[in-house]
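Researcher: For the record, we're logging two predictions in this thread. I'll number them. Prediction 1 follows.
Model: Prediction 1, sequence and structure:
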Amino acid sequence: MFFHRLLFCGSLLGLFLLSSVAGAAIRPYSLALNPQAGQFFFEASEEIKDAPLYSLGFGYQISDNWSGLWTGGYLETKEETGQRQEVKGYLGSVEILYRLRPDRSLVPHLAAGLGFLAFDRDGTINADGFAEYGIGVQYFLGPSWSVSLDGRHLLREAQNFTATAGVAYYLGADVEEPQLTDLDGDGVIDVFDRCPDTRLGVPVDGYGCPADEDADGVPDYLDKCPDTPLAAPVDKFGCLLDRDKDGIADYLDACAGTPAGMAVDERGCEAAKSPIGHEDGIADPRLQPIAPPPATLANASRPAPAKKPARLSLQVNLNFRSGAAEILPEIEKELEDALLVIGKHPGYYIVVEGHTDSVGAASSNLRLSQQRAENVRKYLLEKTGIPPEMTRAQGYGGARPVADNGSQAGRAKNRRVIIHLSENAEM
């Protein structure tokens, strides 16, 4: 019996020494099916031979460290003296296990519990209860499987020991859900939020940044003029700039820098010297001067060179479907209106610009924008009879957005074509 106890204690010490292997193992709230096999050691005074023990356990992982285990076992042996009767043993126990290193692949545990042990000698059954304690270790082969070694000391009228090895299969893992936090409370989770510190209550776009529906650079919650035309220069309040204070916004002003108090026409030029003539004396509202690129906006107040040829931008809103270049009926309707304006300016050269949103590869978008521009150019040639050498198509891909590509509405505005008119072939 002394040898058995020595073997028992030595095995348990070895299990603890092995538990230095690191890895992720324990799965809280999982169920375990745990078949085991080993040896049951009887006290010498019982005069019963040690015997193989077979058991089946059912466990529940309460937390990282704690779990419960119910086990039922069976053994067959013989008495060592007398008539050497056959003895069948039935074992049942309920245990609490404490796992010492649940973040490792090799996890040692302590165990304590209560149980019963019944012996059947030719139909005569004797049973008594016991308390037990012990130690063990599990090695996790993956998220669902482990192997284990266990030792128990059973305390009853006689003292017994068990040593078993087994496998365990786990069901219903504790799958940790990602934390979808939104610290600024703008409705865009932090992992996607490009502006994580927006003020509470400020409307935001799909990237979590303050919304700017008219894409003028002034957020909507500060914008006092929320419907300014796209690309038109604005002040810090989001309203149209008029640097020469002539009542004509800079983006429409063909004669920026007119002296204060000068009478101007609808183009911002001296009333008798408008650079654009109209047969009926009324400017077409869809004809606008080309806005300077952003890098030159600071110079917008300088008077335009006197000999600069007239150049107009035909503001026609041609919104294409994503990834498409075909001219849909609603686009054709806009082009029919454009033909009326083009007809009033015979002899003007025409450049058709194609643009896309930012979805897709830059090279693909460049080809798509060129195709859009070419399709519109062909349409104009068919309808007007303009000489082909007086027209040109140019694609820019997504390089010149006029709205935020982070929203569906913004991307729709960027899928567009613009028609430019010029008295000079070099535009």
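Researcher: Logged. Prediction 2.
Model: Prediction 2, sequence and structure:
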Amino acid sequence: MNKSRRMVALQARALALHGFAVAIVDLRGTGDSYGEHSAATWDGWFADVVCAWSWLGTLAPVPRLLWGLRLGALLAADLVAQDAVDVFALVLWQPILAGRLFFSQILRYATARQIVAGSDARMERKLLENRLREGIVIEVAGYGLHPALVIPAERRSLSDLLDPTCMLVWHETTALTPVALNAASVDIIAKLRNKGAHVESTAVDGPSFWATQEITEAPNLIRATTNTIERLLR
């Protein structure tokens, strides 16, 4: 989240310069919002987005788009799937395709140091998983993870949530050559299009800004997203 904050702000400003109203939401337990990250839950984040969505609608009663990055893309898709928000289009940046895979990677990160220390990383990971199942908050890289965040997210997958009647803007960055979408993303997009979905998808050259050591920008992603949204709305 900390690595992504600058890119999100730059994209919001780019849209604002084109006349769009943009709300950036710090979900509870993150950024300047109330509470520690250990208090963040999936249902709480869900409610935060609904609140912000309703508020923005009173300020700008025009077609609205819901924009999600990484795990936020999975949350956004869940909101649309449950009819909690009525969107003109769903904008997905580098979406997490399955919550289970995402948190599996998080737990591997949490136990990686155990390998260096000579401990059994698999046993440590199993211990963390058991704590979550027992309703106990665990800590990863200094951040508390609440079971009510992890467990619901693990039950969500993008392929199950996305509705072919919802217009999608699906953008990714890659440092690979040739520039192309992730193979798993291509598969999901193809299935959606076969069902009649309108999907605006593209990959652009750029860094994995959410995971780089230093704060990094991906200007090609901002340009592509701004151009796509402006074309769709105008």
